[in-house]
Structure formats: structure tokens, C-alpha cells
Amino acid sequence: MDIYVLALALVGVALLGAAWLPHLLKRHPLTFPIVYLLLGAGLYALPWPLPPADPIRFPLVAERLTELAVLVALTGVGLRIDTRFGWRRWAITWRLLGITMPLTILAGLWLGQAWLGYGTAAALLLGAVLAPTDPVLASDVQVHPPGEGGEDPVRFALTSEAGLNDGLAFPFVWLAVALALAAAGEPMDWGRWLALDVMWRGLGGVAIGAVLGYALMHLIFRSERRPTLANSSDGLTALAITLLVYGVAELCHAYGFLAVFVAALVIRQQERDHAYHATLDLFAHQCEKLLMALLLLLLGGAVASGILAGLSWREVVFALVFVLLVRPLAGWLGLLGTSLSSRDRWTIAVFGVRGIGSLYYLAFATHHADFTDPEALWAVVCLVVVLSILLHGLSAQDVMERLDRRRRDRR
């Protein structure tokens, strides 16, 4: 059987399902990610000559595919947020970034060392890759498309957190890489890490995203040429924004994820009410669904191919504790003292979905440094992602509908 032709047919099936399944499953507890995860596992369990689904053997392929999926998702996230930017309006976001995420990283580091017996570099990497809320798989708990309203505190908090938390997670991923290289004999330069990986890459990403976003906003909406891009129905501009901003930021050694989200947010905030935002968001969402479908098929294939086979009971307990206790407790502590109701606080705390972003960070780190027992790291992270897909996917729709009903009744 020709593997190329078979792969084309499977991509066609994935595309068809990506367009059809979300509507079919709208009133069912199953979600698009769950179905594709199970479908991938089923396909790779059959004796077909499918492309290998092994991120351990092919970390660069895994890194590039997950990177593109996260980038497109970040563009959509930035374009969808209706809430005007402001330090007070975004107070919940700052709490999730400044309190919840560091607590989650520290918990992952401590559990990785004390419970799993990992070294400092591997344990820190485990905490850093599992800390961010995923912008790709959390669509069920995110805000609605541009201008549709319904932007409640829960959806806004989880969406804005997913857009910005890469700027805090990436420095710790780089620190884990530096510690792994130091263990291999390279000198550890704390000053370089602080100046480059923390200060410049973060602040530079924000600055580049803001400048390019403002320039692109003028090009798209306020160009003197007629007709402007905004008067077209072409959503390719969303992909152009993503690739251009990311490329410039990475060439300047800044965090491209952060720059892409900030650029999309600036474009939306500076020109809030134009209908073209819906076109851009729709195209970004379609690209995101395509990439998510392919990655979930591959993740299911990796599970069927035995990526979880080497898990010990300790690592299974770690994954359950991380999903069911660490993030919920860290989220609850980060939101103490806010005006949110107890129900809203718990919803935000619990639904910090782990997903494609975690796989990207792990692929990135293992491609840039040698960590002790990368197979165990991949197994643990994949298990956490699978558990998050299943547990959060089965409960998110029902929980969010209950919250929406209570808000309507209160009004």
C-alpha cells in the first residue's frame, strides 16, 4: 500500500471530520479532541503502513507541527477578546500569570524531584511545560468569536491567560535547557538567562508584537488605497499576520508566541467593531482545527504505538494529582480576594487545559538539550494531556452551559 496516498486519504478524512464533527457533537458529551484522539489510536492500532507517530524519534517534526498549531490559535485568541485592555480590567489575568503559573511550575518541580526522583533540570522542565493553559484545546471554555458578546469573566480569564502565559513559561523552559546543558559540562550563565531569556525575549516579544500589530492594523483597516484589505473577504491575512510577526520576533530572539498574541490583540483593540475581524477569526479557527485534527491523530497514534507503555504507578499518580489538584489549587489561590463568585473561581481554576502547547515545549526542550530519560518525560506529559482532554472535554460543555444559565437567570 502506498503510504503517501494513504496519508492523503487520512488527511482528507481529518479535514472532513474537522468541519463536520463539531456540529454533530454540539449536544453530546463527546468533544472533537476526544473523538480524534480515539480515532488516531484506532488507526495506529491497525496493521497499516502509517507515518510514524513518535515524537521521541522525531522531536523536530513534533516541535514544528505543534508550534504552528499554537501560533494560529494565538492569533485567533487575540482577535476574539472583546474586553478592552487595561490593568484593572485584566486583573484576573495578571493573578493567573503572576500567582497561579509560578505556583504550578514550583509544584511540578517539587513533585518531579520528591515524588518521581527526577533531577533538577528534568523536574523543572516538567513543571514548566505543564504550567501553561493551552490556547488550542481549550476552545470550549474560551470567548466567542469577535463581536458576538457573552464575554463573561470565566471565558475571558481562561482565554487571556492562554494568550499570555507563554511569556512566563518559556523562560523556565530555557532555564531547564540551560541546566541540562550545564549538567553535560557547559558553564551555567545566570546573567545571560536573566538578561536574554527573561528580560529581552519577554519584553522584546511584547514590544515587537505591539509595534507590528499597530502597523498591520493601519495597513489592513486604514490604508489610503481603496479597497482596503478589510473590505475583502479573504481570511489569508490572519495567516500572514501570524507568520510575519512570529518570523520578525524570532529573528530578533524574542518570544514569537507572545508577539503574535499581542499583535492580534492590538489589531482588535485599535479597530474594534469592523466585521473583517470575524473573517480573520474564522480563517484562523479553520487552520487551527486542521492542525489540531492532525496532531490529535498523531497523539492517539503515539499512545497506540506505546508511548505510555513505560509509565510506572508513580507517574500515573503524578499525572492525576497534577490535573485534579495542582492546577485547581494554584488557580484558587491565585484568585483569592477577587470579586468573582466561588463557582466562577473554581471553574477558572479547574479548566486550565493542558494540551498542544505542553507538547511543543517538551519537543523544543528535548531538541535543544539532552535530558535524562526523555522517554519518561514524554510519557508523563502525554498522559497529562490525554487526561486533560478526557476529563475537561467531558465536563466543559455542561459546566459552561450551567454558568450561562445562571447568568441569564440573574439578569
Describe the overall structure.
The chain has 411 residues and is mainly alpha-helical. Helices cover 72% and strands 0% of the residues. It is built from 15 helices and no strands. It has helices at residues 3-24, 32-45, 59-80, 91-114, 120-130, 153-164, 166-183, 190-221, 236-251, 256-270, 276-304, 313-335, 342-350, 356-368, 374-410. Helix 3 (59-80) packs antiparallel against helix 11 (276-304). The longest helix is centred in the C-terminal third of the chain and has 37 residues, at 374-410. It is globular. It starts with a helix and ends with a helix.
Strand content: under 5%
> Helical percent range?
over 70%
Low-confidence stretches: none
Counting DSSP H or I runs of 4 or more residues, the number of helices is 15
The count of DSSP E runs of length 2 or more, i.e. the number of strands, is 0
What's this, in brief?
This protein is mainly α and 411 residues long. The chain is 72% helix and 0% strand. It has helices at residues 3-24, 32-45, 59-80, 91-114, 120-130, 153-164, 166-183, 190-221, 236-251, 256-270, 276-304, 313-335, 342-350, 356-368, 374-410.
Secondary structure elements and their pairing?
Layout: H1 3-24, H2 32-45, H3 59-80, H4 91-114, H5 120-130, H6 153-164, H7 166-183, H8 190-221, H9 236-251, H10 256-270, H11 276-304, H12 313-335, H13 342-350, H14 356-368, H15 374-410
